[in-house]
From TrEMBL:
InterPro entries: ARM-like, ARM-type_fold, PBS_lyase_HEAT
Pfam families: HEAT_2
Keyword annotations: Signal
Leader sequence residues: 1-18
Domain of life: Bacteria
Gene3D superfamilies on file: Leucine-rich Repeat Variant
Signal recorded as keyword: yes
UniProt protein name: HEAT repeat domain-containing protein
Protein's UniProt keywords contain Signal: yes
Amino acid sequence: MSRLLLLVLLLAASPSRAGTVASECWAACRRHVADPSLRARTCGACVTGGRVDSWVASLGTGGAEAQRALESALTDGSWRVRWAAVRAGARSRGLTERRALADWIMDTPPDADLGACLTAVRAAADTGRSTADFLREAGARGPSAAARVWAKREAVRQSLSLEMFSQEPAVRLPALLHLATFQGRSATRVVLDAVASRPVAGDAVMAELLSAVAERQRASVGRLLLTEAKPPDEAVINRLFAVYSRELDALRPELASGDVQRRRTAVASLRRYGPLARRELEGALGDEDARIRELAARGLAESAGKPLRDMALQGVKDAETAEAARPWLGAMAHEKGCFAFLRDVAEGRNARTPEIQGEAVALLGDCAEGPPPTRRLAPFLASTVAPVRAGAVRALGALPRNGDAMALAAKALEDGAPEVVVAALDVLSAYRQPSRGDEAAGLLASEHPVVRAAAARALEFVGRAAHVRVLAERLRGDPVADVRVAAARSLSALGGPHAVAALSEAAAHDADTHVKHVSEDGLRRLGFGR
């Protein structure tokens, strides 16, 4: 198979960017290598090399034709091809790469040395160094070469600024980073200067470029702009804010989606905006999904430029309810130092209410630090504060299934506090323990509506046919709608003629529309109704 055909087949099967690089490599090789036999030996490297300059390296050990190809490559439009030609030429002459670079700059007439100067700028910046520093190791001609490059700084700036607005996205970020390194300025400052010098039509490109910088630095565009902003930048920053505001407007419908995965994706996207998305991130703290709440908490910490622990501590101290503290506690449950943080809150430090203490205890089950789980929860299971005991029971449900945890949850069914019993019922139903069905059924007679509702919910998972009768009684006669809803759902799961009769009666006559709806849905699941 010919090398050309192999390249065509490779490009046809490759992702678009890889295919573009290979085709650019092939075109560059053919542009500079005139000898057919040298092409056949050289250009094939484009198939496997993965770089636009993959073909250049082998020329350094070649004869006259190869040397002519290297000289031609020094005029290529790609700095990577030019730099590869310098390096290959250095090997053939027994010089260091930087010495060869300095020689090239100094041996080129001043009115034609922009390509050489740009190559030096970009090769140096690619290593994170200034051109002067990079050329310091080039020998006696290094300082003079660096001075020549600096004399061309305006032409260099114009060339790299033009690439920042390239139609090829992959070209923009390297140009920005190289220009920032060359000028000794932040990438954000370079973007602001570029926006100021260009019409509004280019703002979206610069906003996207700054987003790429933020992602690279694990920061947000809002934080980058706030850190860099100076009073004269107000008009430029407002132009960028306008772009980001339009992007946030497009995200808001996703934040309200009924699909939890779409909401997660949207909230994760908000973090790139930082302080600009503060209102949206604060709203996401109240989402029903724990992962979304954690993403929002982390996003707010990043937007404030503070460690998550500091933000979480302040969030918990300020919280007046368990719901307000939950996002911060949940975020810290997966963070280094989670055990000490949650234990302090659970023991009453930094918590305004017992319910917040209980929320912290509940999340100890998610923390991977500290003593073995059942041992770390033991003091809280024996607490005199009911919400703390309830939290400890809830934490049992987050542990891997084991006999000790199930025994502790079963013992909690005998607790006198309704919230503890509810937590125990929820854990045992999550464990799918049918042996606890009779205990759950017995609790349907509790004086506490929350316990009756939890018992009815649990029977959906631990109930048997023998429990249908007591569930039907609850559906027909319990004064609390939440209990009747839970009973209807469990009857729908257990089925049987008595369940169908009770559901039919509730669907026709219950005074609560939610109970009616759940009962009708249950009948459909059992094969009755439309």
